Amino acid sequence: MASFSLPTNHALPSLLHSHTPKATFFQNPSLLPKSSQSQFHGLKLSNSSLVSIPSTSYVKGSIVAKITEGSLAPAFTLKDQDGKTVSLSKFKGKPVVVYFYPADETPGCTKQACAFRDSYEKFKKAGAEVIGISGDDPASHKAFKQKYKLPFTLLSDDSNKVRKEWGVPSDLFGALPGRQTYVLDKNGVVRLIYNNQFQPEKHIDETLKFLQSA
Amino acid sequence: MWSFLVLHNTTRMAILPHHNPTLRPLYHSRMSHRILLQTSIYCSTTTTPAKPRGDQIMVNQPSALGQNVATVSTRPVLNDPTLQSTWTHRVWVASGCTTVLISLAKSITTAIDSHILIEPILAGFIGYVLADLGSGIYHWGIDNYGDSRTPFFGNQIEAFQGHHKWPWTITRRQFANNLHALARAVTFTVLPFDLICNDNAVLFGFVGVCSGCIMFSQQFHAWAHSTKSKLPAAVVALQDAGILVSRSQHAAHHRPPYNNNYCIVSGVWNEFLDNSKFFEALEMLFFFKLGVRPRSWTEPNSEWTEETESAHL
């Protein structure tokens, strides 16, 4: 995989994501998907080329193929809140909602987790499982899960490896881990990606709507 | 009978203002007739209720969550010295007003000499608008970060905490007592402009109005904690018109989780800042970059839970 540095432009007025660079980065200047809206109101990626900030990000890194709709979700094995290793492959055979969130015990993430909890039965009815992933350690996840009585698994993405691998975009010019949810079908193929940092409950609405209509 | 009881820890309040004149509790809750919390009161057998001071009353007071939190409090004294203005307070308010008036006067005289009108007025308007934004950001910072040991800001932070707990106190403060801390800051900030800057109608228009609004924001704040019946009609009209922060808007700030409606000049920025999650974004940024959690994330928090008060004091 090639590595390179790109020029940074932090003068953008809107809070666009900082993306992991991809091979087509330089070829598509400042095009946003049709369905994009401001970050605060949610960004549903309904086409496969999420294009980055125009021309300009100094991001040192490798080019990775970003996960988009239609991609096969890359396998991962992470520790859950009890310290047990959990692989994504374990969930093959049924739809999975994988939601990446910034951190335990922050207001948005708490709202989101509780919203998933409150709608969990509906997800189960749709045959889906729910997994939350953040960079927090298993102990933090365990406390978070217990405090809010979350019925689903929380995984510890040590050093945010999986987050980077899946290309979850950051917010606030890279300062804030992004809040992005993936719906995988029973074959592990990504069917929906939804991003919204500051309206966390919408993740539940959108993914449930999708699952129920599928 | 219970509604007549005022829970006011004068000992604690005495500590805060005496030790630092910059303290200024800012907030006020809804008055008792709006407070839905129920208060149970148990009188200590060692005190005489008839005494004007020093009654020790154990109170079981519901917190925001409805859990009972016992507090020991003393019956308040109407002329609590910590709420009164001293001559030092008055001097600072006078100096603050003087620097603001000089700025405004320079703006007006220069405008007349230069035959311009719109630009200084516009600059003044922008000053008024930005004063509201500034008040919100400053207020958010002081409310959420640091504590009494923080250098320079420590006493203010403690005062803000105290204000959340005893919000009605601000309406009992005399004018100079309430404003002197801001007046002092304004004096130091505006005086250099007055002395050094050339006559510039636009600059002085902006500085004069902005600093004036900031200095008087404590008064606007106190008015926002008062009841309609106790306010002059002109003030009520200004609040209703959105020119001064309204009582209802500020009351929203005093409800858990205490993380909205931070602006206290006109409140014009509140809706935008809250809807755009501006402060939430800043809080997340501070959390991820500096590892600090804002106080509002730990709500409901007994530190900020208001103590109820009688409407009849």
Descriptive account of the structure:
Chain B: It is a multi-pass membrane protein. Chain B: It is found in: Membrane. Chain B: Its main location: membrane. Chain A has 214 residues and is α+β, with helices and mostly antiparallel strands. In chain A, helix 3 links the parallel strand 7 and strand 8. Helices cover 22% and strands 18% of the residues of chain A. Chain A has helices spanning 107-118, 120-125, 138-148, 161-166, 201-213; strands at residues 3-4, 43-44, 61-62, 77-80, 85-87, 96-100, 129-134, 153-156, 180-184, 190-195. The longest helix of chain A is centred in the last third of the chain and has 13 residues, at 201-213. Chain B is mainly alpha-helical and 313 residues long. Chain B has helices at 10-19, 87-114, 118-144, 154-165, 175-196, 201-225, 233-240, 247-253, 270-275, 278-290, and strands at residues 40-43, 57-62, 68-73. Chain B has a three-stranded antiparallel β-sheet, with no helix packed on it. The longest helix of chain B has 28 residues, at 87-114. Chain A binds chain B through residues 15, 40, 102-103, 105-108, 172, 175-177, 197-198, and chain B through 259, 276-277, 280-281, 283-285, 287-289, 297.
Topology:
The complex is a heterodimer of chains A (214) and B (313).
Chain A: E1 3-4, E2 43-44, E3 61-62, E4 77-80, E5 85-87, E6 96-100, H1 107-118, H2 120-125, E7 129-134, H3 138-148, E8 153-156, H4 161-166, E9 180-184, E10 190-195, H5 201-213
Parallel strand pairs in A: 6-7, 7-8
Antiparallel strand pairs in A: 1-3, 2-10, 4-5, 4-8, 6-9, 9-10
Chain B: H1 10-19, E1 40-43, E2 57-62, E3 68-73, H2 87-114, H3 118-144, H4 154-165, H5 175-196, H6 201-225, H7 233-240, H8 247-253, H9 270-275, H10 278-290
Antiparallel strand pairs in B: 1-2, 2-3
Subcellular location (chain B): Membrane
Protein name (chain B): Lipid desaturase domain-containing protein
Organism (chain B): Fraxinus pennsylvanica
